[in-house]
Amino acid sequence: MVALTGVMALVAAGPTAAFAAPTNDDFSAAVAIDSLPFNTTLDTSEATWDPTDPAQCSSNGSVWYSFTPTSDMRIKADTIGSGYDTVLSAWTGDAGSLSLVACNDDYSGLQSQITFAATAGTTYYFMVADCCGNGGGGGGSLVFSVEEIQAAVNDNFANAISIGALPYSNTQDYGTSSAEAGEPSSCFTPVNTVWYSYTATATGSITASTNSYYSGIAAYTGSSLANLSQVGCRGVYSGQALTFVAEQGTTYYFQVEANGTSQLTFQLKVAPDPIAQFYYSPGDPSSYDTISFYGYYSSDPAGAGISAYAWDFGDGTTATGDSTSHRYAADGDYTVQLTVRTPDGRSDSTSQVVQVRTHDVSIDRLNVPATARVGQTIGINVYLKNTRYPENVQVTLYKSVPSGFVQVGYSTQLVKVSTTGQTTRYSFNYTVTSDDLAVGKITFKAVAQLTEHTDALPADNELLSNPVKVSS
C-alpha cells in the first residue's frame, strides 16, 4: 500500500515534477548567455514545439538561448557531443518576426555547427531542435557550446589570398568562415565561404576544384563585391571542377563554399587536355559491313565535358557526333582518327588502324553416291572455293534423320586462294545403317565455318546433297 501510494503521488505530480519541459522551452524564456566561451548540458526529452517558432529551420522539440555581444565578433555555436540528431539555428528580431542568421543540420555526424559575424549590441537567439522527433516532441541529451573565433584570413573578399604560380593548393579550416554582407549568391547560397584571387599570366584554360563533393566554387571578375561579374559556377553536391578560359592580365576571384565541411582543400591549375577514346564494332569488318564507331568513352578530367567530336575515317570521308557509322568500299588498312574538343577549346586526338578484310569461302559442291546398301561404307566429298585470303576452315558433315540432322564428323584444313576455279576437297566416310534403311534414303549436309575470321557472305557456306537411296 505504501509503494502504491508513492506511485500515485508521482503520477499526480504530473509534468511539473518528473516530466517537466526545459525552462527554456519557449522563445520568451531563452537562457541568456552572459559571456563567452559558454557550454551547457540539458535534457531536452520533454522539449515541445510552439506555433510561434520560426519554420525556416527545424523547430521540433526546441529550446532557446540568447546572446548580446558588446563588440563586433565572429561566433561559433555547436551541439557536438549531443546524444540525438540536432538542428541548430541563429536568429535576430522579435517573437513572430525573427530573421534567420544561420542554420545547420549534420555538420559533424548528427550534430550541428554554425558560424556567423555578430554585431555589437544585437541580440542573437539560438534555437536547438530535434531533427527527427515526432509530434513536436524533443530530443535527448543536449551539449550546447558558443565561443568567439577568429575569422579565416581570407574570409572576406577584400582579404582574398593571392595565388601566384600554378598549380596551387591550399587547405584550411572552414569552420571559422562565413558569408559577409553583400556576398553574391549564384549557383549556391554563401554560408561558409572564403576567397582567392588569381591574375592570369597567359591566356588559357584553368581548373578550380576542391576535395569535397559537397563544396561549391564560383569565379568572378571585378574589384569589389558591388561590381562582380560571374565567369562560372559549380554548385554544391555537383562534385565537379570549374573550368574556363582565363585571359592574360585579368584577375579572377574565386568564392569557395564549404557547405558545412570543416577541412577543405582548394586547388587551381592549368586545365589538362581531354582524353579522346573510341572503339568500333565489328572488330573484324568486311567491305559489306557498316561499322559502328563510339566516341563517348572520351573524357575531360577538367570537368567541362566534351562538346564536339570530329571523325576522319582515313578514306576521304568524315563525320561528327559522339557515335557514328561508316562502310568502306574496299578492303584495306584505314587510319581512323577521332578529335574531341571541350567548350573552352581544349582538344585531343587519337587514332586506330581499322583493317577491313572481306573473308569469304563457299561450298562449291557436295558429292555423294546415288545409292548405298546397309553396311556399306561410302565416301562423301565436300569441295570449297576461296578467292580472297588463305583461310583455316572447318567443315562439319551431317546426315538426315526423321527429326532433322545429326553430326557425322568434321575436318579442319587450310584452304588456299585460287582465282582459277580450283577447289579444296574435304573427304568423309560413312557406313550405312539399318536405321537409314528404315527411312529409305540419306541426305547429307555440309557446313563450312572459318576458324579465325567471320565469313562476310555466310549464305553459301551450307549445302545439301542429293538423297542417297538406301537398299538392303
Automatic annotation (TrEMBL):
Gene3D superfamilies: Immunoglobulins. The keyword Signal applies. It comes from the Bacteria. It holds the Pfam family PKD_4. One of its GO terms (biological process) is carbohydrate metabolic process. Residues 1-20 form the signal peptide. Residues 274-356 form the PKD domain. It comes from Micromonospora globispora. This is PKD domain-containing protein. Keywords: Signal. InterPro entries: Ig-like_fold, PKD/Chitinase_dom, PKD_dom, PKD_dom_sf.
